[in-house]
Amino acid sequence: xxxxxxxLINLDEGxxxxxxxxxxxxxxxxxxxxxxxxxxxxxxxxxxxxxxxLAGTVLRCARHGVEFDLLGGQPLNATCAALSRLALAYDGDxxxxxx
Length: 99
Ligand code: FES
Known about the structure:
four-stranded antiparallel β-sheet, binds FE2/S2 (inorganic) cluster
C-alpha cells in the first residue's frame, strides 16, 4: 500500500520534514536534489536525526557528532551501524513509501 508523504513540487533543496508512519519516525530530506528517506533515529545511540547538521552529503548527528555519508549510509568518524535508508515510491505527483 502506497503512503503519500509529500507532493513532488514541494521537494526543494534543503527540504527536511519528519513523518510518523506505522509507528516509525521517518525523516525526508532533499540532498543534492535527491530525496532521501531515513529512519529518524541515529544508529549510534538513537537520537532523532531531524536536527542533524547537513554539509554536502554528510549528515552530522547533533547528539555526539557522528557523521554519516547520506549516499551510502556509512558512519565516517565512529564505529556504529549505517543509517537506515528506506526506498521511496512515487504515485502521480506524490512521493511516499510502500508499506
Ligand atoms: S546518538 Fe547520534 S551520534 Fe550518538
